[in-house]
């Protein structure tokens, strides 16, 4: 086989592979985008009640879930007429059957008598209620609540200003929210791009554990791989043509002599 024939064969194979890469990339990109659109819903957080985890004006991605799948530690979006019929974003700290109280001698929240460490309350940007050198207590006011079955007890991470279950302790259900009111679970802050919201380790140690991670990392991975394949496949043609032109130059020079 001549050199030209071998080159043509490699060229055809390269074109086939590049077309395949573009096709697979399109499937991954469009599939990941469609999957995300079905599973996730964007929300804009209107207040600073979840600072520093989520700040006012942040754009979050929340996975559509059934209220029955919610676990302690989840940051959820819910709508309850008792709270004003507008979507609220809070953290679940108690589920049906729990006794939620605050604060113990170390200023911590307790669930069924077990103290819960909440590092997100003291992250950079969180306000301090008792000075700059000490950690703020989990709540500026003491409270105790028994969570009825089928309901959840929720708090904001900005405990000094959040209007949460503590404000509704005198309501039926002691400030709890029905699981059926939950619309979604917040998995990530999309803008600014602060990344995934993790599941608190302290809640993982309690009976029932924490919820599993949502599919967002897989969806983002599919999008990124799709983009790489599309760009790589599309670049093959120009690069191959440039390589062919370089290969022809020595032949042209030899013919001139």
From TrEMBL:
<comment type="similarity">
    <text>Belongs to the peptidase S26 family.</text>
</comment>
<feature type="transmembrane region" description="Helical">
    <location>
        <begin position="216"/>
        <end position="239"/>
    </location>
</feature>
<protein>
    <recommendedName>
        <fullName>Signal peptidase I</fullName>
        <ecNumber>3.4.21.89</ecNumber>
    </recommendedName>
</protein>
<dbReference type="InterPro" id="IPR000223">
    <property type="entry name" value="Pept_S26A_signal_pept_1"/>
</dbReference>
<keyword id="KW-0645">Protease</keyword>
<feature type="transmembrane region" description="Helical">
    <location>
        <begin position="20"/>
        <end position="40"/>
    </location>
</feature>
<dbReference type="GO" id="GO:0009003">
    <property type="term" value="F:signal peptidase activity"/>
</dbReference>
<dbReference type="Pfam" id="PF10502">
    <property type="entry name" value="Peptidase_S26"/>
</dbReference>
<keyword id="KW-0472">Membrane</keyword>
<dbReference type="InterPro" id="IPR019533">
    <property type="entry name" value="Peptidase_S26"/>
</dbReference>
<keyword id="KW-0812">Transmembrane</keyword>
<keyword id="KW-1133">Transmembrane helix</keyword>
<feature type="domain" description="Peptidase S26">
    <location>
        <begin position="22"/>
        <end position="191"/>
    </location>
</feature>
<dbReference type="InterPro" id="IPR036286">
    <property type="entry name" value="LexA/Signal_pep-like_sf"/>
</dbReference>
<keyword id="KW-0378">Hydrolase</keyword>
